[in-house]
Write a structure and sequence with these properties.
This protein has 215 residues and is mostly helical. 74% of the residues lie in helices and 2% in strands. The protein has a two-stranded antiparallel ribbon with strand order 1-2.
Length: 215
């Protein structure tokens, strides 16, 4: 088990314990999930901006290839921050209308969940960044990866928003979310590691011998 796995398990276990102890409705689970989504997005943008050597193969914007330049990288990170941020702003408005925190205790609980998710994602980012520096990751793939982590689980939780907060339901939701977190975190790491391995293999290949013109 990696340190990131342990952090994800502890973060989700903390959410489950809080939900049981404080008798949260199912919809209240959206708050820690929203916080985790924001943390994932923050580190995804940071990861894109930290790239040194990257590819944009197959990645276009406004029907034009995204250039493999500093400007191309920064404009992609800015677009991601705008789109991902808008998605979570609407999400936040929904939460405030349906499940507004009540007092300092709720705020302190959510802050604790946020800290646990930051610690988990920071460890994941460090491993991803180290692999990115050794490889040549695709900028477009890095931009879309966070959506694969956050959208399916949130759709499921929205679907059970009005369900009764029984222990079996809470266990099911948290178990599915934890499995999704672990699987996609491992997939993300494998993508970064495989890219680094391919880059290392290319560097290890001997250069082509100089051609000799025959007259």
């Amino acid at each position: 088990m990696t340190g990131s796995d342990r952090d994800l398990l502890l973060s989700n276990l903390l959410t489950l314990v809080m939900a049981v102890v404080f008798d949260w409705p199912i919809g209240w689970l959206l708050w820690p999930f929203w916080i985790q989504s924001v943390v994932i997005g923050w580190y995804a943008r940071k990861r894109m901006l930290a790239l040194r050597d990257f590819s944009t193969e197959g990645f276009t914007a406004n029907n034009a290839p995204v250039p493999e330049t500093e400007d191309g990288k920064r404009s992609t990170a800015a677009f991601f921050a705008l789109h991902y941020g808008a998605f979570h702003a609407f999400y936040l408005a929904f939460l405030c209308m349906r499940h507004l925190p009540d007092g300092w205790r709720d705020a302190a609980i959510l802050a604790g969940c946020g800290v646990s998710f930051i610690l988990s994602q920071r460890r994941t980012w460090a491993a991803q960044h180290a692999a990115d520096l050794l490889g040549r990751p695709n900028l477009g793939a890095l931009m879309f990866l966070p959506y694969l982590r956050v959208v399916p689980m949130h759709l499921m939780v929205f679907a059970v928003d009005d369900a009764a907060a029984t222990l079996p339901t809470l266990l099911l939701v948290i178990a599915l979310k934890t499995a999704s977190d672990l699987l996609l975190d491992h997939a993300d790491r494998r993508i970064a590691a495989s890219g680094a391995a391919r880059a290392a293999a290319r560097r290890a290949q001997p250069p082509d011998p100089p051609s000799r013109d025959r007259r």
